Amino acid sequence: MAQREQIVEVCNSAEHQSLPPSQIVPRLADHGQYLASESTFYRVLREYGQANRQGHAQPPRAVPKPRALVVRGPNQGWSWDITFLPSLIRGQFFRLYLITDIYSRMIMGWEIHHDELASHAADLITKACLRHGVVRNELVLHSDNGSPMKGATMLATLQRLGVIASFSRPSVSNDNAYSEALFRTLKYTPAYPNKPFVDIDAARAWVQRFVTWYNTEHRHSGIRFVTPYERHYGLDRQILAQRHAVYEAAKRAHPQRWKGRDTRD
To answer: Is residue 54 scored above 70 in pLDDT?
Structure first.
């Protein structure tokens, strides 16, 4: 008890009252004195109700996680972002604006421009909502915190269309994972050009071919290896049922290959 009181007395002294234990312990050692370790200092101060934060530092606070959004069908949640496509001029890029449906992974709309403007994004969202018959107040549109995403023109357009805006948390790089994954697929597909695009028309022509392939031919691993088009329009149920029948027939014909395991889901 005497040693604890001595620790508190040292911490409350004029010389040490504004210093944390990490500063007090080595200062005492410089004067040939050792009372206890830093952890013991902290423990004793907590017991005496004196473990306060120093200076202007704020105590840690629990930040609640955002409410999870669950989509159970198409046109309930979209994700969009902008990526750069290289041009022949060093340091200059074309901007690809691209929207994907979170449920089906289908590309719902895209455009390529020379610059990043909220007006371009607003036009793209308007066209996509009209093309796909989006119902007011039923679609959540997620994006990061870039200026085209949060521009006044864009936000006003979303309000007019009845689309609910959703944004990534500050300094959280993977909150817009669906769009980032799609851009990776786009730029790592074997058909992606090895050289920069000659002009914006060449970039648009290539992206048009990619979108057609991605939506109608690419078997997406995130939706059980059906195409986004099949998933979006409900054709995947019959396809998956037919696959299951094929796998079950193969299992009955060669049960030793499965060794009691279930067929592939």
So the answer is: no
DSSP annotation of 88: S
State whether residue 184 is helix, strand or coil: helix
User: Taking the mean position of all CA atoms in its chain, how far away is CA 129?
Assistant: 23
Query: How many angstroms separate the CA atoms of 96 and 84, rounded?
Result: 6
Residue 102, token pair as written in the block: 């979170």
Which two three-digit tokens encode residue 195? 């050289």
Single out the residue of 104, 254, 263, 113 nearest to residue 182, CA to CA: 104
Instruction: Break the chain into its structural domains and give their ranges.
Output: 2-47, 77-198
Radius of gyration over alpha carbons of the chain, in Å?
A: 29
Q: What is the pLDDT of residue 265?
A: 75
Nearest to 223 by CA among 237, 209, 206, 208: 237
Question: What is the tens place of the pLDDT at every residue in 138-180?
Answer: 999 999 988 899 999 999 999 999 999 999 887 777 788 999 9
Q: Does domain 77-198 have CATH number 3.30.420.10?
A: yes
Per residue in 201-211, pLDDT (tens digit) is 999 999 999 99
What is the rounded distance in angstroms from the CA atom of residue 183 to the CA atom of residue 185? Answer: 5
The phi, psi pair for 78, rounded to 5°, reads -115, 155
**How far apart (Å, rounded) are the C-alpha atoms in residues 150 and 70?**
23
Full-model pTM: 0.76
